[in-house]
Design a protein that fits this description.
Number of strands: 0
Radius of gyration: 23 Å
Strand content: under 5%
Shape: globular
Number of helices: 9
Largest sheet: none
Helix content: over 70%
Number of domains: 2
Distance between the termini: 59 Å
């Protein structure tokens, strides 16, 4: 009986050690991948045409989903907030409340999560398919740098496009809020947006921009890493796309928590 327990402990210890080692090896590989991006991403030659194409794929093709989500978010958030404010006779604060909530948290977070699902999975599946079909290997043989062409362009494009989509989401959210307020209280367009923008500070805009850039970089680097290092076979493609979404969303939530605490210091909260 004692020997069986010792064997079981030894097996569990070996499994934990193997898992712990794999985690650190993965983190090491990710670190090297990020270092390689910064080493090659800003040195010539520059893939400008591919960068523009990726910005189009990430940005323009996400507009419909972003527009719908932002509009509904602003509409629902305003409708749900009105009863609480009306109890204190503070419905006039509703535009400011919605604007602050959208710009500080909702717009960056919603845009990041939507992009992680749509863009992250697309990048992971696309690069995974290229790895499986040996297109990346063929590019290396033909003296082309596949990392610069495939990875750096996508990461830079996501880092540029996600902040733009974030402010567009905030704008659509404000449009949904205005629609609700206008139908309920007859508030004019000028009065609504003047009240909404009164409490917006430069720190709010800066914080939202920085968070969006970080979210965009995370989505791009996770999707590219999973796809570029995809295992052989069609199963690896699906795994790369799924991992890009799950890991990307988890990191976005983690970065949101950290960024809220960080910028709270500057706000004196």
């Amino acid at each position: 009986m004692k020997n069986n327990n010792e064997s079981l402990v030894a097996v569990k210890t070996a499994e934990f050690t193997g898992w712990f080692t794999n985690v650190f090896l993965t983190l090491y590989d990710v670190g090297l991948f990020i270092i390689r991006f910064f080493r090659e991403g800003f040195l010539p030659p520059y893939e400008i045409k591919e960068l523009i194409r990726q910005c189009y794929n990430i940005g323009y093709r996400s507009l419909l989903l972003i527009s719908t989500t932002g509009l509904i978010t602003g509409l629902v958030f305003t409708k749900q907030s009105r009863p609480s404010l009306s109890e204190f006779g503070a419905t006039s604060w509703l535009p400011s409340l919605v604007a602050i909530a959208l710009l500080r948290t909702l717009a960056p977070l919603l845009t990041g999560l939507i992009a992680a699902g749509k863009v992250g999975s697309s990048i992971g599946a696309e690069l995974g398919s290229m790895r499986v079909t040996e297109q990346i290997d063929a590019m290396e043989v033909s003296a082309c740098n596949p990392f610069k062409f495939l990875v750096t362009t996508r990461v830079i494009a996501s880092s540029i496009t996600i902040p733009i989509l974030t402010f567009y989401t905030a704008l659509m959210g404000m449009a949904g809020a205005f629609l609700n307020v206008n139908l309920s209280e007859g508030t004019s367009y000028t009065e609504f947006f003047q009240s909404a923008l009164e409490q917006i500070t430069f720190l709010d805009i800066t914080a939202s921009t920085i968070k969006s850039i970080i979210f965009g970089f995370t989505i791009g680097i996770v999707g590219c890493y999973q796809g570029y290092n995809s295992s052989k076979g069609t199963e690896g493609v699906g795994k790369a796309a799924n991992s890009a979404v799950v890991i990307g969303m988890f990191l976005i939530f983690l970065e949101e928590v950290i960024s809220v605490q960080f910028f709270a210091i500057f706000r004196g909260i």
